[in-house]
Design a protein that fits this description.
With about 220 residues, the protein is an all-alpha fold. About 65% of the residues lie in helices and about 0% in strands.
Length: about 220
């Protein structure tokens, strides 16, 4: 079957090469990618390699999903150029392909230093794919981020890494400490609540059997 005759191919192509707004809104269609035939996956890899860049990282994400060894030199080149969410996506892809946790340092850099809350959120969300003490400590620090959504995703990545369902709202005593009723710079009282949330999470992880490795 040629790629043009495949329903999975059309779904895949529309997601990874169609309107980027819908890819952002709906998420990439990984099921369609993985359901391609072996011949179609080869064609998809060729297309990804042709179109991979630092501004639209859908191709980089796809290469990571395919564990494309051919992509490593190009992705490493882009790693030195990319910033923010793009840097996160490329680092995740390289980590997936090479099985190398050290790429987490790029994502931690975004989490700690990026000025845009959405990029920090993206970093907090994807650090759960790199289980190391450095990652866990960076996520604990992000529980005190000025933006609520960053705090939320940091908490949920920590839950995931420690073997809990990644739904912070189900832990009501912690959840109420990461929510603030206003926007802008956190107050002294807000910061105390965020620190309390960190301590609550650490305690919960220590008490879990079997205990989390990095709490």
């Amino acid at each position: 079957m040629s790629p043009k005759e495949s329903g999975n191919w059309e779904r895949f192509y529309n997601s990874f090469f169609g309107d980027p707004y819908w890819a952002w809104h709906d998420g990439l269609d990984f099921d369609a990618l993985h359901q391609l035939s072996p011949e179609e996956k080869e064609k998809a890899e060729e297309l990804f390699l042709e179109r991979v860049n630092e501004n639209d990282t859908r191709a980089a994400v796809g290469l990571g999903e395919l564990r494309s060894k051919k992509a490593v030199p190009r992705l490493r080149e882009l790693l030195d150029k990319a910033r923010g969410r793009e840097l996160v996506d490329i680092a995740v892809a390289l980590g997936e392909i090479e099985g190398d946790k050290s790429y987490a340092k790029y994502i931690i850099h975004v989490l700690k230093n990026d000025s845009w809350w959405y990029d920090r959120l993206w970093a907090a969300r994807h650090l759960r794919e790199f289980d190391s003490p450095e990652v866990v400590e960076a996520l604990f620090e992000a529980v005190k981020d000025p933006d609520y959504l960053v705090r939320n995703h940091a908490c949920e990545s920590l839950l995931y890494l420690h073997g809990f369902e990644p739904e912070i709202s189900s832990h009501k005593e912690i959840f109420k400490n990461i929510i603030t009723p206003h926007e802008g710079e956190p107050s002294e009282e807000d910061n105390k609540k965020y620190e309390a949330a960190v301590n609550q999470l650490r305690k919960m992880f220590r008490e879990k059997e079997p205990a989390g490795s990095y709490s």
